[in-house]
Amino acid sequence: MVGTSRIKVLIRGLEPGSAYLAYLLAKSGDRVAIQTARPVDVYLYDLPPPNLFLKAGFLRDLLLVDFVDSADPRAFDVVVDSCDVEQDDVLRLYEGGRVFYVKQDPWLSATLSLSRGLPVPNVVDLPVDRTDRYEEVELRIREYAGAPYSLCRALDAASGKPYVPLRTLERVYMAADLFKELKGLGGRPPSLRLEYAVGRDVFFMGIGQEKAGKLSRVTAGGLTVWAYGEGAAVNYLLIKGDARSFKSALYIYNGLRLDRLFFLYDIAPERGAVNVAALGHLTRHGRSGDDIKYKNAS
């Protein structure tokens, strides 16, 4: 752990998570350099319409973050690996009206379709209309590896399996967690995989990497939640709701990420369905059906 003193940090790769980490470190007075082959503006490219997150010029000119195409890691106190993502390719996909399957990222494929009111490729495992007529595309990603810290690699706390984080918001959360650790403000919470597809008036969110255990389905507060688990553990949640409830689903994600027993604390049920959804499989033996609708649980 580095602590609260000023440090020199090299971040290898430029994407939303690394840009946010650079922002936090620079604001705290640290000297930050970003090694990247693409010093361009960074977008939230998986939430339609694509929105600007941090301008490279802002990082360079106002926060005094250096952009370099090569660097000696030995000259820095901390090295963090991330990725260079060819965002222009993704932005162009939003301009068309066809169905695309992004090979590395089926949830992005679903977002592209949902945002235009189209069916999703049949390779995407979501309860929506699907089609066999789609075009395949690939994201160009340059991943940096070898540093002690990474925004491109994680270990899912629910399944224990490694994975590559792809969602923008997940990378932002990981960046905030890493900043906290580097500044001596506490350890990082375990990673919990976050997937989502958002389009027009609906969103889907997957929390966890593997659907394991018994399944319960509940509807509460405008959200439908499929909860997979066994005993007192929640292994996976699939959430569906209207786009305005997306923030409520993020409450659920962050609650479980910070405390795996978050669903036991029935303190604000109006903010989400987590205490109902997660307890669904725990009380399964006492119910005759799998689908119970709760109204304004308190």
Automatic annotation (TrEMBL):
This is Uncharacterized protein. It comes from Thermoproteus uzoniensis (strain 768-20).
